[in-house]
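#data-curation
PF: Archiving a pair of folding outputs for the training set. Convention for this channel: one message per protein, sequence first, structure tokens after, nothing in between. First:
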Amino acid sequence: MKTVEQVKEFYDQDTLKKSAIRNNLRHFKIILKLNRLAIRKSKNCLEIGCGNGGVTRLISKKTKGKIVGIDISEGTIAAARENLKDCSNVELHAVDLFNFKGTQRFDMILLLDVLEHIPFEQHDGIVQKISELLEENGTVFIHIPEPSYNAWAAKTHPESMQVIDLSVNSADFISICYKHNLYLKELKSYPVFHEENDYQYIVLTKLPANPTYHPRPKIQIIRSKQWAKLKNLFQ
């Protein structure tokens, strides 16, 4: 397994090659999904593995809330500080999640194409830390390469892979999330750069310790039934 220093060195060197922001289609797809998850209403958002701030900058334009970005690479954070120097609602730290000492809780936590670069052995600890930092009813949004695509890319384009680049089985990962009171709201694979599904997103929420469930008004149920029945007639 790669050491922390080897990982830091890889991303420090990588930043020397591409410190400037170059947003691609994947980034804009992510922002569209975050818009649907009401990123505008977020009061405080934690972005784990913010890189050089490419997506962070897009997020900062969508919300007036505070965005905290962390990354293991000091070189990467230095580039992000330069790229985001005009973004007053962004705070950046060169630190890994396990050593992040923030005391605040976040209503949204993002891992945008980051989880696949974290060793499997650390996933349980990562999820536990995320759960500790997330407010009740908060949202976790995870974006990863679709696992079968990542496995294919590793075989056919090994030169494009990063120092750690895993195929994350979402079923295994979600079972870890349930252990730490994070529950699945949505999971979907979809195409970005290929005709086939090459990316996947996972939406999780943290339930209260003793959740309660409130029945919908009967009139809403009747209307929903009528609407579903009508749609069925035309499909």
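PF: Second:
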Amino acid sequence: MNSAFVRATWRKHLVCSLRSKHNLPNYDPNKMGARGTLTAEQAAERLGVNMRTVRELLRTNVLAGTQVVKFAPWQIPVEALSSAAVVERIHRIRAGNQSRVQPISHDDILRLPGM
């Protein structure tokens, strides 16, 4: 028997057992919208970007989102998509500047004599 299959089955069984023991509801992605949250896939679709971009935004805390546990589906508040940081980053990506670093205005640089 394939060991990956055994591990996956055991994990599924464990999750089902724990949910039953603690009276936790099953995960239903259709109910997330009713709670005002989106999955990462739904956020990518609404932002018009790919999943890699959404994962980067989540990793760098530009886009607010939570996971119940590691590898669980992301729960991203709908209003987080319209935050100033997200809108600005998406605008820079679409303009072709994918740098994570904010551009520095040259007017703010201290000029030293002889340099």
